[in-house]
Structures are given as structure tokens and as C-alpha cells.
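Notes from hallway chat w/ T.B., transcribed later so I don't forget. T.B. wanted the structure written out for a chain they're using in a teaching module, and asked if we could keep both sequence and C-alpha cells in one place. Agreed to drop them here.
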Amino acid sequence: MLANTYDALARQLQFSEALAKCSRTLLHGSLGAEINPDVLNEALNYLLLGFGISRIGVFEAHWADDIGPHTIMIAEAAALPLTSRLEQLRDARIPTTPEICRQLLTSQTVSVTLRDLDYSPEEQVALDIRSLLLCPIFVDGQYWGNLAYGDALDDRHWSEHEVMLLQTAAEMFGSTLQNWRSQAQVLERQREAISLNSQLYERAQQVAVLEERQRLSRELHDSVTQTLYSLVLLADGGQRLARAGRLESVDEYLADLGAIALQSLKEMRLLVHELRPSLVSKESLIDCLRERLHGVEDRAGVTSRLLVDDDVVFTTAENEAIWGIAQEALNNALKYAHAKTVVVHVWGDDHGRGVDIADDGIGFAMGDLPGIRGIGLSTMHERSEAGGAVLTISSAPGAGTQGRVEIPL
């Protein structure tokens, strides 16, 4: 039983490391205005090796009158090359049944065999695939295609942990594709709008994108990379205790290992969210808050509630200021407060309007606030002043943290 436990821990470490390498590759390769197959192929290869599967590919959804709905591969990684006689299958279309379409369009992961898709036994052998796991990829909230994982085993059972991590990988690919599309749209608008100072403007845009990529790279290094190193140290310590016969202490190491792995997943969800372009200029503050809570907190296992009073309206400048403050507060609750629940209340009354954010995290002593670093407090105050708002924060050890940003009438 102990051997099985360590085997499971080793696999989880391998899965997490593969996911981190895939994330780094997509992060560093997301600067550009068109799909880069080389970046996708490199990221796919890390997943292939880390998860021990036969073949993996990114497939874009299409429709044709003669064959109906199907997907076409744009990037792949494979453990074995295709036979020369079946090389044409590299660009093969994966047919999609109406039921599979329905499941994918509703964000469901689908497990099928090639027999279900009418592949011949010869094609199954040549592709080194018997079963597929299809994870939907969404771009700008619309179904774009699939991340398809192929295995040589018939009716392979994909564990809940594997499916969760592979779904996270699909979200990473969706965020990267969305970044490429957004940057292409930005460049197209630049070509239409910029005349004499086009070169200077384009350079400024590139610098802004580069600075954001460097910021996210630092976030990845400071959070996920260091967390993975802690997991490795804990696993090694647990193995040494087990070999020494101190089995009573192994449970403590396993509990710490699970807690750190969960925190790593939360921070990975946050990074995936931050890879996406900001929506506050196109959508309302309430829509942005709802998308954030669903995309990060809900999927990271944090219970979230969004309460909205009737007829609360903010100006564009107020939207941007409050959104920036809200993101900082939610990030702090996720990364530092270890909160299990967050409540966001968008309110308005006779005295003003604003947003309250409360969490049930570990809290802190208000007297320690000036010395606390890394929580973006100065940035939050700058944003509130720029938006004509008043920011107040209250907290106590063990009592969570409450923040209010108010626009007085």
C-alpha cells in the first residue's frame, strides 16, 4: 500500500512538472499576432512525456457539407512516428458525432474510442491510438476546438486527477490562442488607424506586451516553480521517513504535500486567468467580476458569491479603477489569505455606490499593514484615487479581510 502511495505521488509530481513546463512554453511564446505551431508542438511534447500518452494534438473545429462537423489538427506530438503509408493521417480529420458536439459545446470532457469514430483496425494500429480524451478549447467564450489525448489502450480509464490537469492544459492553450487572436486584432486596428507615428505606437505596444509577459514569468517562477520544488523536497523527506520505519510521520508529509499541491493548482488557475486579455473595456464591471469568480475561484475550489444591487451603474473610468482593485483583493485572498470563501457585493445607496469584497482567510493585524509587502496595497490606493473612489480595508488575525471601494455621491 505504501509503495502504491509513493507511485501515485511520483505520478502527481510528474504531471505537475509537465503542466508547469507546458505553461512556461505557452507563456513565453504568446507574444505574436498569429498561431505559432512550433510553440504549440513544444508545449504538447511536455504533456506527452509527462502524462505517458501515445499521441496528443490541437484540433480546430470546422464544418463541411459533405462530412458534417469535424476537427482538423494544427499541432501534434507523438511517441511513435506514423508509417509512411498512412502519413496522410497526420492531417486527418476527426469526425465528430452530434452527441460529442453537444458535450464539447457545454464544456464537457469526452472520452471515446477510435471504434466509436469508425477508424479501421489498421488505422488504429498505425496511429498507435485506441482511445481518445477530448478536452474542449474555448476562445473569447466560443467553442474553438479540442485538445485531444490519445492512448494505445482500449477504453482507458482517465483518473479524475488526470482529467482535471488535462482540462487545465486545454484552458492554457485557449488563453494562448485568445492572446494571439487579440494581438492580431490589435495589429489590424493599428494598420487602419495609425499613420505618421505608426512605428512608434507599435513599438510601445510591443514593450507593453513584453513587460506583461515578464511580469507573468516572475509570477510563475515565484509561485508554481517554487511550489513544485517544495513538493519534491516533501516527497523525498517522506520516502526517507518510510525507509527509516517512521511511518507515523509519513501522514504529516502527505498532508503537507496535498495542501501545497492544492495551493499550486489555485495559483495556476490565477495565471491562466491573467493570460487572458482584459475584458473591462468591452464588458461591464459585473460581467468581469462574474467571469473572474467562475474562471478562477470556482475552479480552484474556493466558494464564491456575487451579490448585485439593482440599478448600480459605473462610468468607464470607475469600472477600470474598481476592477483593478477588485482583482488585487481577490488575488490576495487566493494567494496569501488561504481563503475558502469570498463574497463580492456590488452595491448602491443614497450615499454612493461601490464594491465590497470579504474573505474568510487567515487575516492580519491592522498594525502590521504598513510592513506587509506583495499585496499591492499602494497600487490599490493609487487606482482608487485615480477613479475618485475611497478605499477602506479591515482585518484581524483569524477573522478574514474586508475591503470596500466606494464612489461617494
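Follow-up for T.B.: The two ends are 65 Å apart (CA to CA). Might be a good example for the class.
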